[in-house]
Amino acid sequence: MWRAGSRSAELGVGFALWTVKECMQQAVAWRPRDLPAVQPRLVAVSKTKPVETVIEAYCHGQHTFGEKYSSRTIKWHFIGHLQKQNVNKLMAIPNLFMLETVDSVKLADKVNSLWQEKRFSRKVKVYSIGHLVVLILKITGVT
């Protein structure tokens, strides 16, 4: 069986992704008709690939990556607008190091209540600049 990774250096990541997705679609077409029409998800494993290759895959539309090992050296910073319905998801992210800004008092209250509920060992700093509230959360104990 041909493996996408074995020739991706020669043919490019984009072509390798396209080939794998084509094989997936053929497999979907061959399945029995009485099975649900659920599209398979391609999870790319990036653990041994150079950063440039992972970025190239991302630029070609591959946005789902899987890792076998959890890197304790990565420190994730969340930047930009955070929606209230995504606070729980954000707090569950391994190696979340910092939530850079929170742009409303309501959102700050929701984050604060989750902090108290979960009893996270994280530090919270709140800065107010006029009507803008900036909440900076720094996780303690991340190596």
TrEMBL record:
Domain of life: Eukaryota
Keyword Zinc-finger: no
Database matches in InterPro entries: PLP-binding_barrel (IPR029066), PyrdxlP_homeostasis (IPR011078)
MF GO annotations: pyridoxal phosphate binding
Keywords, ordered alphabetically: Pyridoxal phosphate
UniProt protein name: Pyridoxal phosphate binding protein
High-level lineage: Eukaryota, Metazoa, Chordata, Craniata, Vertebrata
